[in-house]
Specification:
The chain is 57% helix and 6% strand. With 130 residues, it is mainly α. Helix 1 runs antiparallel to helix 4.
Length: 130
């Protein structure tokens, strides 16, 4: 098992969290842009690799492996299940998408705050080491 507490591991995890938040925001923004498009189906992002990481599942070790894109932090876009369609066939819900945008912004902001604190510590160590 890799060293989960090293600086590189923590920085990489924060980077993945920020990437996922940006992807969730982009999908929610796309859904909002299609709020009035007849027949549009709400998209959602699945991060199956996050579950695999927690469960210790198989890992891709080569970019050509099946699912390697998802393992690099790219989520898979799927149709959101369980949303009732309107008469025009569109199932985008304004409140759901605004909540998704807010949650993604909060996740991004939290990771950004931790990363900024980490860089402040590094800068402090460099400046005090003179």
């Amino acid at each position: 098992m890799a060293d989960t507490y090293s600086d590189a591991a923590i920085t990489a995890a924060l980077g993945r969290q920020m990437t996922k938040a940006v992807q969730r925001q982009a999908v929610a923004a796309g859904n909002l842009a299609n709020l009035d498009t007849p027949g549009y189906r709400t998209k959602d992002v699945r991060f199956t690799e996050a579950l695999d990481d927690q469960l210790g599942g198989l890992r891709t070790t080569n970019a050509r492996h099946l699912g390697a894109e998802a393992a690099r932090g790219g989520g898979e876009q799927t149709e959101a299940p369980g949303l009732a369609p309107r008469r025009d066939g569109n199932n985008v819900q304004l409140d759901r998408e605004l909540l998704s945008l807010s949650r993604a912004a909060g996740d991004f902001s939290a990771a950004q705050t931790v990363l900024a604190a980490k860089f402040r510590l590094v800068r402090y160590a460099i400046n005090e080491g003179r």
